[in-house]
Amino acid sequence: MRTKAARESAALVAGTAYSLYLSTDLHDIDTIARLRYRVFSDEPGFATAMAGVTDGRDTDRFDEHCDHLIVRHNLTGEAVGCYRLLPPPGAIAAGGLYTATEFDLTELDGLAPQTVEMGRACVAAEHRSGAVLALMWAGILVYLERTDYRYLMGATSVPVLRDVDGGVAGSQIRGIRDFVSDRHRGPWQVHPHRPVLLDGKPLDEIAAPTRLAFPPLLTGYLRMGAWICGEPAHDSDFGVADFPTVLDRRRANTRYLERLRQITAGAR
Prior knowledge:
alpha+beta; two-stranded antiparallel ribbon; Aminopeptidase; disordered N terminus; 9-stranded mixed β-sheet
């Protein structure tokens, strides 16, 4: 169990309007859980999963084993964004990775000692600017460089209902699946425990949209040079399809990394 001895101190990455902190403190984890609940409760699909929560907190068994990154507004000190990183020792203590609840990760077993899992990313609606998202990715870069882990992995969500162009439910998932399979297919392929099936139709029977709309987190992963390592899994509780995503720090997009390094120039 984490204690207050590990509470956030100096900013991991300091920006003009926002700063990012690393913490494993129980008070901070509680703050994060309340932020996640507030954000997810307003998101299509996620709101259904939050409906059964009675204490206003989004938590699970992995939280206490993670390193939590918190974005705070410099003027108010308010927590406005967060995500969690589960390093290999934490994954062992937690009994595995969250991603393993959705996918058979056997093909990635050889990467496990060098893999950090990212998850539960969210940003308050009133602070969803490029500055906050860039700061979050810059924080990931600092974390990986300081811990010297090579791989970042996560299950990246695309909502089932994403009415961008009037398409049917799942059309964005189909279109994004086709796009990443063609351009970002990984060297390893994992398999979902629960493939996407909507109204009895698999993805191949759902019409693709006329226009793709990538969620910001997935866009960031792809800009960094991440791979998509298999078909998405259907998370019906959250109303999303989760794409198995792996980033190798050694082959990350150097131009995008340089932009992030400019942001992290003030990191300490």
